[in-house]
Amino acid sequence: MQISSRFTIAIHIFACINTFEKEYKITSDFLASSVNANPVIIRKLLQQLKAAGLVTVQRGSGGASIAKPLEEITFFDIYNAVECIDKGKLFHFHENSNKNCPVGRNIHHILDDKLERIQKAMEEEMKKITIADVIRDTRKYISEDIK
Amino acid sequence: MQISSRFTIAIHIFACINTFEKEYKITSDFLASSVNANPVIIRKLLQQLKAAGLVTVQRGSGGASIAKPLEEITFFDIYNAVECIDKGKLFHFHENSNKNCPVGRNIHHILDDKLERIQKAMEEEMKKITIADVIRDTRKYISEDIK
DNA sequence: TAACGTTGTAATCAAAAGAGTTACAACAAT
DNA sequence: ATTGTTGTAACTCTTTTGATTACAACGTTA
Description:
The structure is a homodimer.
Chain A: H1 6-20, H2 28-35, H3 39-51, E1 55-57, E2 64-66, H4 75-81, H5 102-127, H6 131-146
Antiparallel strand pairs in A: 1-2
The first copy, chain A, binds a DNA duplex through helix 3.
């Protein structure tokens, strides 16, 4: 299985807010239209991003905005905020191995450190990429697009 | 979402074969009992591992064995063999973004290289861990277990 | 202060994917 | 031939994701 599209949608949201906030009010309907998803899905994501301190959302009047400098928001922050993997574990473990078998009884201990190493390698790379990088490329592609 | 348990089960299979092949014939039923999964699931996995040249399976008489030196079988080999992520992509992309929106139209281009970087970091770490490492720790834990 | 547009959130539904299960033909060894 | 096993298809069950409906809470402004 793959990491949930909640992650790429969340990044999409940041790109949209930054690109359009001068011109439009950024509502969940507006974002849902760009992403092509249901507005309720967007609102849930915005709630999670808000809980992580990455965006602000105006209740009543409406509108979302980015809460921190772009270069301070890493992919890792977003990945944690939107809980795109289950219980923080990248690998799904077969939990019910046979405890009467010497291998079944120990397989979790045997693998845990190795799986963590791999997950950590991924997460460290995520920390190196920020929304500032996304915005830079968004502008680049949009300007090429228009030509 | 998480990476399918097919991956950890496959590693479990290698640990079992190596630990018990001197004593027992390693049938899909034997492995299924240690993993606590259905024998058909195990057979499908064995087929995939066989297709990747990592194990051999005897039809008719029965029994599986490891086809290569332990230190030449990396986690990356297994991960590829058992197709534990969808279409080789770690991240699920929201594919139907709005092509009339400048961001929706370009978001895939904008993100692809960054997602690949992250996936690659994970896969490179997977290449550094082998079944030899697993077997070493299996023996260690089992011997501690017995004391 | 009433009307309007929006957010926050619960509840329910539909679709997709993983894993389990049943069934049985193909095969090897005795 | 019989036995035990693999290879594989077909189907079901379960879990998870995302879609949808519904509506109260809230701000703004006319």
